[in-house]
Automatic annotation (TrEMBL):
<dbReference type="Pfam" id="PF01284">
    <property type="entry name" value="MARVEL"/>
</dbReference>
<dbReference type="GO" id="GO:0016020">
    <property type="term" value="C:membrane"/>
</dbReference>
<feature type="domain" description="MARVEL">
    <location>
        <begin position="11"/>
        <end position="140"/>
    </location>
</feature>
<keyword id="KW-0472">Membrane</keyword>
<feature type="transmembrane region" description="Helical">
    <location>
        <begin position="129"/>
        <end position="150"/>
    </location>
</feature>
<keyword id="KW-0812">Transmembrane</keyword>
<protein>
    <recommendedName>
        <fullName>MARVEL domain-containing protein</fullName>
    </recommendedName>
</protein>
<keyword id="KW-1133">Transmembrane helix</keyword>
<feature type="transmembrane region" description="Helical">
    <location>
        <begin position="40"/>
        <end position="64"/>
    </location>
</feature>
<feature type="region of interest" description="Disordered">
    <location>
        <begin position="162"/>
        <end position="198"/>
    </location>
</feature>
<feature type="transmembrane region" description="Helical">
    <location>
        <begin position="76"/>
        <end position="98"/>
    </location>
</feature>
<feature type="compositionally biased region" description="Polar residues">
    <location>
        <begin position="170"/>
        <end position="198"/>
    </location>
</feature>
<dbReference type="InterPro" id="IPR008253">
    <property type="entry name" value="Marvel"/>
</dbReference>
Amino acid sequence: MSWLYISRLAIFAIVALFSLIVLGVAGNISSTLSSSDSAILTYVGLGIATSVLTLLSIPAMLVVDLLMTGFFTSMILVELAWLSFLWILWLATGALVASDIAPYTSCNFFYKIEVKICQESQAVEAFAFLNWILLLVYTVVLLVFTIISAQRGESIWTSSVKSSMGGRTVGTSSRYPMSTNTGDVPPVSQAQRPQTEV
């Protein structure tokens, strides 16, 4: 297996775990605020929605990729589009939390419930930004390797990461560097000229 496929599995597992954490913490904030008749903060709803979308789609992408070959959700093009959508949502979640709690970075409040909500909001912010960074880095790396493969003549936009990059190192289609040789025909060497004395 290539390092990209193994990295994909690790990143998807970490993102799913962080999404579960954000879902729990944002749900707890929502529960606390609704029981105290306070206004629900905007970022709580966005954090819950983004977590649910991530938890429904990331494991589904992995399971479909493992069980079926050629299904449209396994295509690199679809994966790039969906993961880009998810990292934009995670960035929006983290930025919304950051803008709402920016004046309260120290969480020095008189009431314990306010301290608790402030600290939990900081946790939502941290995990939202971590998910954003992980998904962004993986999406950019996948896009770069897909473009490199496309420039080498391999059309892998509609194939899955597992089938195109799962069993080999990305970009090793040619035995000879900087050539279009497929390895069937040895490279042509330049004719040697006899050296003449001057």
